[in-house]
Write a structure and sequence with these properties.
Helix content is about 30%, strand content about 20%. With about 425 residues, the chain is α/β, with parallel strands linked by helices. The protein has 3 domains: about 5-95 and about 200-260, 3-Layer(aba) Sandwich (Adenylosuccinate Synthetase, Chain A, domain 1), CATH 3.40.440.10; about 105-195, Orthogonal Bundle (Adenylosuccinate Synthetase, subunit A, domain 2); about 265-420, Adenylosuccinate Synthetase, Chain A, domain 3, CATH 3.90.170.10. Strands 9-7-5-2-10-1-11-15-19-20 form a 10-stranded mixed β-sheet, with helices on both faces. A hairpin with a 7-residue loop joins strand 19 (about 405-410) and strand 20 (about 420). It binds guanosine-5'-diphosphate, 6-O-phosphoryl inosine monophosphate and magnesium ion. The site of 6-O-phosphoryl inosine monophosphate (IMO) has 23 residues, from helix 4.
Amino acid sequence: MPAIVIVGAQWGDEGKGKATDLLGSRVDYVVKFNGGNNAGHTVVIGDEKYALHLLPSGILTPGCTPVIGNGVVIDLGVLFEELDGLEQRGIDTSKLLVSANAHVIADYNRTLDKVTERFLGSRRIGTTGRGIGPTYADKINRIGIRVQDVFDEKILRQKLEGALDLKNQILAKIYNRRAVSVDEILEELLSQSERLRPLVADTALVLHEALGRGETVLLEAGQATLLDVDHGTYPFVTSSSATSGGACTGTGIPPTQIERVISIVKAYTTRVGEGPFPTELLDDHGEFLRKVGMEYGTTTGRPRRCGWFDTVIARYAARVNGVTDFVLTKLDVLTGLDKVPVCVAYDVGGVRYDEMPVNQTDFHHATPIYEELPGWWEDISGARTLEDLPANARAYVNAVEDMAGARISAIGVGPGRHETVVIRDLL
Ligand code: GDP
Ligand code: IMO
Ligand code: MG
């Protein structure tokens, strides 16, 4: 079995963690390929609830090897905290592998993330404040610190000197903050290096060899299509490639090895942070979705903005990711509504858009054109096959599938691992 990619279709928090966990027992490797501890994946196994930020969801599956790929940015303190937390709960984390080429989030980048947001004022992005953007900026500017650098004090010192020459000017002269000494950052990183050393590997080679043996590799995205730095709602995006193309650059697995692209799409839409959101609901319906769907950020606890399902976004996600299968999640949350509106296109200044407008201003001004579908009242959390769903829920799924540009192969009807309607096998 070749490589399989899981990506989010909307603005994140679609339930990627649950989907990855569901497949976990049948895959050999789960690889995180982008982002860092800005992600928050909640996985519910029986009575236990796990919140993962930096670690791939596959860490919860015995036998599966979790991998942090080269495309990820790593806060080493958070990595060890998360590992300790899982170990205390009896999860074996000893198989974790970390790419030698992944970048490390240094303390000054956490500071810069926060002060930049403050500086932007009303133009802020609403970042998670974890230092993600500045660390990716350093990577592109070629002044980043990589995992392999923390094992060589001389190299690390040289790289930190280079980075801080610039950063300290920015911190002190633009943001009026204290300059940072090379020694304090050096000490922090060196103190973490011993624990890190046994985890580090040439993960691209490890994965290449695993695929050669016919093993299954699942590549798991953080964030989602509309938060992708190229294909998302720029500048209100994260700083990494969260679409399926990022799975290749973020792991070293070539496109020719990817057989399937599974996109997780919520039965309605949510967004955390700033930026345009055509179907956003600022009324009681929005509050209903937030309450019933428990839409509060796993990472920052912020209430998520909520709105109806948007098929323009689903079609766009299908297109830019090459989606082979959608997993429609949280259908249970829509239970109890008289009518369920679905956005089928946008109106922008009297012009109909069936596809995502390429112009950012047009997307900001897009008004949804809705089609109203009849709701259902029956509890669907026990459904395991399509036939178990009430007729109106099935009609909703069929209508969404017709407009979304790819087949729906599974449906989430509750947070638990097995609260899923499986239409066809995902592997
Ligand atoms: P991720 O970032 O894409 O992994 O998603 P999050 O974990 O941030 O947010 C999804 C939330 O919805 C989590 O609390 C999940 O436990 C929960 N969840 C996932 N699938 C379903 C579902 O089908 N129904 C319900 N009710 N909750 C779900
Ligand atoms: P998962 O993997 C939802 C959002 C932030 C902000 C923007 C940039 O759980 O789906 P950043 O800190 O990345 O520079 O912030 O991106 N964001 C997410 N929103 N789910 C996530 O991850 C997110 N990761 C980042 O709220 O608007
Ligand atoms: Mg999340």
